[in-house]
Give the backbone structure.
Amino acid sequence: MDADTVLRIRPALTAYLKEFDDCFGRVTTRRHLDTYVEGQLSDLRRKSVEPIADATGTPPRTLQEFLGLFRWDERGVRDRLQQRVARRHAHPDAVGVLDETSFPKKGGHTACVQRQHCGATGKTDNCVVSVHLGYAAGDFHTLLDGDLYLPEKTWHQNRKRCRAAGIPDDVLYRPKYRIALEQVRRALANGVRFAWLTFDEGYGGKPPFLRDLDALGQNYVAEIPSNFHVWTKRPAVRYRLHGRERRMGRPPRYPRLKAKSNPTAEVRHLLGSSPRLRRVRWQQYHVKDGSKGPEVWEAKALTVWLKDEAGLPTAPHRLVVARHVLSGEVKYFLTNAPEAPTETLLAVAFSRWRIERMFEDTKGELGMDHFEVRTWRAVRRHLILSAVSHLFLAEFRQTHGGEKSGPDRGPSPRGDGGPRAGLDMRRTLLQEAGPGHQPPIAYHPTTQRPRSPQPPPANPTPTARNRRVLEGYDHLSTKTLVA
């Protein structure tokens, strides 16, 4: 970064990084935190260890050892970051977003690298995959956590290869949804509260993950695959033996489904096979303004039941079927908050672009994909430090980014009026953030985490609320912030 930029941000950066002092046992090690974060915030073309070291007059080997060998508490750094977000950016409508990203790599020595689907290149490629938890609240968003995905066959089952890459023997294969669940639990333990979690079908298609979120009391809106099974009518369950069965020897296990219970169905068949869903009218929603114009989806919702681990019906959930009015693309969303309005569920579901923007910022501005270290510890520390740098930029932008115009009035379901009713009024669920009002989101009372009571809104209506989810969010850039 140039001298003027350094002068503008250094006081804020010094105060910010001071919060992580107790995560470093030695002053000399702590100084490398300043070096690394300033390097990520700089205008260097490549932000790997060697360019950062050359630009700051630090021996490259020393900075490599800072990531891979020096003793400091990277878990403590992550906890401090999350506690700062919980303390300074708590929001009643905060949304947690889970997703993964990939880093193309050559060779086979970097920890966790293998040929797999690589989102960065859009094909099967040699890459490292990491799972992340993002936090979005109003016009603010940042990464909270990130961890490497250890492939099962090529790494977990080859402990010799793991040891060569510095992967401890107690680090074993975990499905991506298990990594995501651990990240959610860590964030909750550090005081972060999410009104909602949202994620794509790679996580939504895992019933154990959804059950664990139910057990946490965490509201979610999950995209699910088209072959996901649900009941559209709660099946009958038997809870006790009849007299005849007691005389037949070993009794069956109870509770259990009755013999003639209705079967589950794949969600992709419900539009044609479920009379209850066919009776629900499509309603149109202006979801957001995309690069090719306004995106309008029509949706209908239905109460459904899932199977628990014993094969019995769970508490009621809500299925939302959304269809793009132009392309005909169909998406399926599931929530454990069945009383929430459909427009609220769509607003949460279509806010997943926020974590994609976080990935763009951390890769494009901070060099999160520029790492050239290979060991398990070094890569994980790099991911954590990238989140530290991103939080600083997000806070600096929020403080010095200037005022914005307030949001327009929220949308209404376009079930009344003509085929273009509502679209011409430019009402949208995902709008440019501004200093306007923030109406509350409705929650399912049985799944919401405890919080101080809030007064109910006067004269509630089924129309969609204003959405303070930022669609036109500028890329984070130090150069832009201090211009």
In short: DSSP finds 17 helices and 14 strands in the chain. The radius of gyration is 25 Å. Residues 154 and 269 are 37 Å apart (CA to CA). The first strand starts at residue 95 and ends at 104.
